[in-house]
Every structure is written in C-alpha cells, then in structure tokens.
C-alpha cells in the first residue's frame, strides 16, 4: 500500500518511493533521489528540454510531470540507459564536437535514444531536428548535435581524434562526462547539512522600501532563517568596476530595477525556501520608473539609488574634419538604427554553494561558483562579509553557458552571506524567472550614423551618435559603450570620424557583457549605411567592402595603425566571394556582412595572466590556469598547448582550474581565455623546459598585454586600442520568393585554429545566436513598470533546431603577429557580421531597408 504523503514508481529498474510534496518529477529525481543527469533549465515551464527522461519508454520533460501522473510508471534517466549505449552516445558527441557547455546534452540524448529506438537507422536529420523542437541549445547551433545523433542512428560512430597539439581536432576535455551529465554543475553538488536559500525580489523597479516583515516567512515549516540587508556585516554594494549594485535593498533604501533583492530565506529544503520567500511582506512607496534612456540623460531626477547622475559614461573621439568631408562627398546617408535588449539564455541558471569551515582556528568560506570572474567575486564576497579576502575561496565549477551573463555576481553574495551568518552550507539556485530578472543583458542602443563616400564608393567620413540603455547598475555598461564607440566604423578605413556613445542609467534591466560587447550593435548600423552607399554608387555590397576594408599600415577607427593581423578581414571577404557570386547568379537574395572584434580588454587596461605547469612525482602533469570553462573549450586549449610544447602523452596531463594560486586574471571575457590562456600555458611550458621539467615545483608562465591605450586618450594620435582583433565575413542567402534564410556561409579569421572542431562549433553557435539577434529575439521591458515582459525561455524568440538554416564554416588562419601561435580568438566575433548580412539579404528580397532589430522578412520600412 502507498504510504500516505508519498508516491511510488520505478526509476532505472529500482522501485522508489518519494515525498508527494515535490511539484514535479524532476524535483523528486534531483532533490530526493539524487539523480542529476536530468538538468533543470526552466522548471516548471517545460521549455528547454534539459530535464527529459523516459516514462514507459516515451521521452517527456520531467518538470512537467506531476507525481500523481508518474505513480506506478517506469522512469528511465540517462543513468539507467545500457552502458554500451551510453558509451556510444558519449563517443559520438565527443567525436563530432556535438557539445560545448554540455548542459542541454543529457536531455537531448534521451530524446535521441527514444527516436532511435523507434526508427533506427531510418532516423533522418530533418526528423530529429523537428523532435529537438522541445529542446534548446544555446551553444552549438545544433549542427554537430545532429551530426552526432545521425552517427549513432546509423551505427557509424567515428573514433574520436586522440588529443594532439595545436591544430588537432582533439576531443573536448571531459566531453564524455559532459555528454552523459556525469560532470556536475554547481546545483549538482551536495554536501552534508546543506541548507537551501531562495530570494525575495522586489515588486517595483523604483520604490522606497518602507518596511520588510519577515514573520510569516520565518513561521513557515522548515525555514531556518530570513536575512535582509540589515544582517550584512560589511559593505552593502558590489560591482565589477563601480561598487554600485546593492546585494539587498534595506529599509529606507530604494529599489532601482526588477532584479533587486529584498530578503534571503533559508530552509531545510528548496521547496520550503521557495514557498517561504513568497511570504516576505514588503511595504513600498512607489515612484515612476525612468525607462527612456534619452530622457534619463537629460533629467535631473536620479534613476538609481546611490548614484548622482543618469549618465554612466560618455565615450568619444574624433579625427579629421567630418563636416567638410561630408560636404565634399559624392554620396551621403543619415540613418538611425536601434537594437533590442537581449537575454543570454544560458541553459544553466545561476547557482552558488557556500560552505563555511574553520582553518587554523579562523573562519573560512569556500564558495562554489559558475561565475566568469572568481577573483572579483572573492573580493566582493569578502567585502560584504566584512572579512579579509584570504578567508574566502571561490572555486570555479565549469558552468552551463555564460556568454558574458555570468560576469557580475548574481546570487554568490547571498548564498555566502547566509552560510556565513548561519555557519552552515547554503546553496542558492535561481529559478529561470529570477535569472531573467537579475543578470545583466545585451544593451539596446540607438545609433544615428551619418556617412559619406566618393563617387567610387570609398568612405570619406563618419559621424556617430549613440545612446545605450545600461539599466540600473553599472556592471560593465560603460565598457560596452566604449567598445561600441571604438568599433563604430567596423573593419573599414574612414579618414574622418567623430564618435560619441553615451551609456544611460535607467530603471530598466541592467545591461552589461554579452558576446560581441557593443560591436554587434555598432556593426549592424555600419553595415547598414555601407549597403545604402553601395546602392547609391551602383556597386555590390561585396565590392564596397572590398574597396574600404582596413589593411595593414592604414589608420583604423579611433586612430590605431593596424598591423598585419588585419589582413584577415580581406581574406575572409575573399573567402566568401565564390559563394556570393554563385548565389547572386542563381537569383538568390544575398547579403554580406564583414566585422571585427577585439580580443582581450585593451583600452589601456593592464592584462597579465599566469599559468602553472607541475610535474608530479606520480608521473602526471598538472596544467593550472584560472579561466572559466563555459563551453568554449579553454581546458582543451590548455591541454593542447601542453601537448604541443612538452610533447607528452595527453593522458598524463590534468588540466586544473586553479582558484587557490594568484594567477591574476580578471573576468573570462572578450575572447581573452584562448588568447591569454594559451599564451600563459605556453610560457609555463617553456619555463618548465628551461628548468629541465624539474618535478614537484610550480613552473610559472606569464602572458602580458600592458601596452594598449585608452580610447580617446588626449594627445595620442595613434593609440593602440587593442592588441588583437578577430575578423569575419558572413554571407546570408535567402529564398527570393519567401525571404526565408536558406544558408549562411561564415568565413572567420581566428589567426590560428587551436582546435578546428571547437572553432567550427563556436562559429555555428554564434551564427545561430546571430540569426536570433537579427530576426526573432527580444527581451523588452514595460516602459510603465521597468519590468521585463518576456519571462519564459519560449518568449525570448530563440531559433529552434528545425529552423536553423544550413551553416557552412570557412576557417581562415591569418596569424596575429606577436600573439601565441598567431591566435586571435573566436568567441566574441561570432555574431558581429550576422545582423547586417541578414538586413542586406532581406533588402534584396523586398526592397525594404531595415534599421531596427529584431527584423523579419515581413517587417520592412522601419526607417521612420
Ligand atoms: S527544466 Fe524541464 S524543460 Fe526545462
Ligand atoms: S552545449 Fe547546448 S546549451 Fe551548451
């Protein structure tokens, strides 16, 4: 007989009985049965597919299954699949490069298994793509996922390439464990005595907090404590650049955006914590949020509590005489472009586990984090706790995607605070909705471009005025607008230029880092004016780019004299020419985009990173670095560099993300990981060789870029804004009847492809992201409330597998002088040219120019 309050069913062949309190099967599997291959990307909404399991042989999303429906059934998770079948899938995903962060993969494998069980080798890719409609992958663009599934269906799983040196298609580090969901993310970690925290977020984007009543929450069964800002022993505010972001809003303070936290509820389990968090009563005096950035920068009314100006930053520079050059130009255009706010939609919501201990009689806190900047996090956590940084260790756990969205702290300080106050381990995992509300987004930017060219189509002048909506807190918003300004002219030579880009503070969602970092917005606009000028001149989009592309020795944008690294821009353009001509001759609607994006931080920032190589007595070799692995493959790069430099058996090498040694890194951002990580590991290997590979000592290597110049630095005619740039040309081919995008050809200059398979995967994933940016994705907020209006994954408009066009990648290797192996980085440039190329293709389709993102085939005439 069923014991009361419990539900019985069979999991992986074992009869189980779980509490009926769980809101769905996923909760019972993960939180009670400790089965963690089904991941939680969006529960209970059933929109990401990460939690897919088999119930009586049928693939279902377990976060949508109430336990009453599961009673008496047979549930199979990936852990319960036959070992040889598991191995086949893991091998296929590893060999085909079918995974990056891996978070979505276990669910996809379960779905694929169900389909292969049904259709065997008759399973077609297009069929499988349709079935992947229930799944999201934010990293891969699905191309290599579908390749991997096809090889399993046909029983043709290729043998993975053994790990080799630079240029080898080595299997991604830990690919097998990631594919099967065996390599834990933060929320998969359990420690004895662990408590669960849930956050109470504000109901108003701009309001004075008059009172916080925690009594109902405290009385809820299972609740251990409720913490508010009054409990913070140290500093209230944190932030990567400015310390302006309150960990919680105290009574007497003001909320400034929809993600502000009022209270942390800690309970024995996740369910109780979440239930009680809803019971915190807050009294507000509401104020009208300031949500229009153009109004904000001219207003005396301060939008954000604790700040004294709604202008976060102003980035500007000028060269030559724009007015005179425009007046003398054969053709000129003035256009205003606007881009939308975009959500990262990494599949793994933010999670932090903080574990207190005592070391030598002193308190210590060990924090497990999936963030992109463990050192910044450690320092800020210590400040909040009012203790020294040496009492806090932040251990990086490979995360399930980030794309820039995990640079700022989200819940790290909250979990740490509660753990510190209670002297007990506390885990805090955000729900999808909390994640959407809290972390920084891609900036919406409004840009007016005024550009001229001569009768042949050579650019003469460019003036740009831009306002970006940075939302409430600084994050790295000022740097995004600085990068937007620096990249305003795209990869072209413009003799006269005048650029100003303002970051405004508003009560909208915070905006910060996101793959492309301001370059995407700028180059959507630049490509738009270039195509209009081409039409006026009477030449093709390809030709005008060829005429103006930046070349070595020429002066680029903010005055930088470009080195031989910039040869890659023209090589990429040439690489797509045959396909461009052929598509045009077939009468296709065709658009081409050309882009550049810096790697590293530049702008005068001193970037110094270290790595350690250690030969242990036992025979293994440790390679230690401090970069965040978020799917991009930095661990694989480190391994390949070590194999290249030391000529050792890769099985002897262990790559360790080291958070105990001071390796001096900063954020894993701006494609820095591959460039600087490879540089530091290479230097460490050289140091090891010079020391005869002495055992049991740290061989330390360093990579340093400390010679760049700040944008707009007075008196510097030719500043070196950045040490390195990546370049890409993308060709978008659309059906001339329907406007549907059929194919994208992406030629990317990565300098040197350390691992071509991983590079292709990065590019396919970014083309997928770029098409979403161009056509369908949006994260708007309500101008009346400042609250985001798309609060589910489905509403974000991310393109599903069946709608991804064919993507052909051309890897270009035009080396960067003075960088390790000529590396330029690949992650950031990924979607820079995509939106411009889509706009040009759609213009060919229906004759309409498009100035606003997102656009679609039927949404022309946006010029007003
Ligand atoms: S967690 Fe169940 S579908 Fe996303
Ligand atoms: S590999 Fe699919 S979400 Fe990262």
Describe the structure in your own words.
- Strands 8-12-6-19-16-17-18 form a seven-stranded mixed beta sheet, with helices on both faces. The chain has a five-stranded mixed beta sheet with strand order 2-1-5-3-4, with helices on both faces. A five-stranded mixed beta sheet has the order 14-22-21-20-15.
- The chain starts with 5 loop residues before the first strand and ends in an 18-residue tail after the last helix.
- Helix 22 crosses helix 23 (834-846).
- It has 864 residues and is of the alpha+beta class.
- 62% of the residues are buried.
- It is globular and about 85 Å long.
- The longest helix has 20 residues, at 756-775.
- Bound molecules: FE2/S2 (inorganic) cluster (2 copies).
- The site of one FE2/S2 (inorganic) cluster (FES) has 14 residues, from loops.
